[in-house]
Design a protein that fits this description.
CATH class: Alpha Beta
Number of helices: 8
Shape: globular
Structural class: alpha/beta
Largest sheet: 6 strands, parallel
CATH topology: TIM Barrel
Helix content: 40-55%
Length: 196
């Protein structure tokens, strides 16, 4: 990457937030939590309701280790493609479930797909719709080096406070996460949780 771009990025990017979607997952959430603990990094996990029900001990571990959680629907359907009443239920039930483990107002739409009506519904419940600024594409590519390379291009264009999207359901996320954390730390960019 161009040295000037990296230098300019270091002047404007001081803080980022790493977020994980679609878990918890028995294997990969566990590996990610172990890595985050080693690196002294806190993150946000946007959890799918059916996975919370399957792995409640993993949700407790996420919270007990100092990370924050948010809702990500009950079944990870694209909420703009189902009836509005069903979409509302997906949001409401997932947030009720998440709030059994931690008081949170954070919700992220599956696939980042929402419309004005769904966004208004989330807001009417007092929740925040959390999108992202940097998609690591860990859901698309299986090679951790490709993910890391794509990340470096995208983070160079990010603004301070950028939200990084990852997924705690893929093996390639674990491999690329360490490289991403090292990259950020080398540039003295602070990694912190979103306010819940």
């Amino acid at each position: 990457m161009n040295e000037l771009i990296i230098f300019l990025m270091s002047l404007s990017l001081h803080t980022v937030h790493i977020t994980f979607d679609d878990g918890p997952n028995l294997r990969y959430t566990d590996e990610i939590l172990t890595l985050l603990k080693e690196e002294h990094v806190k993150a946000n996990f946007f959890m799918v309701g059916r996975n919370i029900e399957m792995y409640p001990h993993m949700v407790k571990r996420v919270v007990n280790e100092g990370h924050d959680i948010g809702g990500h629907s009950m079944t990870h359907k694209e909420l703009t493609k189902i009836p509005f009443d069903q979409a509302k239920l997906e949001i409401y039930e997932s947030m009720m479930l998440v709030n059994m483990y931690q008081d949170t107002k954070l919700f992220r739409f599956p696939y980042g797909s929402f419309d004005k009506r769904l966004s208004s519904y989330v807001k009417s419940l007092g929740y925040k719709n959390i999108y992202w600024d940097v998609d690591t594409t860990d859901w698309k590519y299986k090679d951790k080096d490709v993910i890391y390379k794509k990340f470096k291009v995208r983070i160079a264009e990010a603004k301070d406070g950028a939200i990084i999207l990852m997924h705690d359901i893929h093996p390639q996320t674990v491999g690329s996460l360490r490289m991403i954390i090292d990259y950020l730390k080398e540039r003295k960019i602070v990694i912190k949780k979103l306010d819940r």
